[in-house]
Amino acid sequence: MNHWNAENTSWSRLIIGMRLTSLGNHNRTSCWQWADGTAMDFTDWNPDPSRRYPTTPSKCGVVAMWKDDDRWTVTTCSMDVPLLCKYTPLNPEDSR
Prior knowledge:
mainly beta, single chain
């Protein structure tokens, strides 16, 4: 499983999903996990406070990659979006 690499610029218009494991601090990496259940190893939160601290409790999040604003954002779990849950490169060189 290749998780999000901050230097990966080969994807555009993509959303990667994750979920909150508890109702704890949204900004702590240890509170989030990938859709496959593994722990988060990177976060880059959206600087807009309304996207980091929603008014309603949210247990899901995404990194939306477009318009040069590739940042983690909390969202409702009922939002329908296309998700990349897992990516395995065909060429091992692509995972660097």
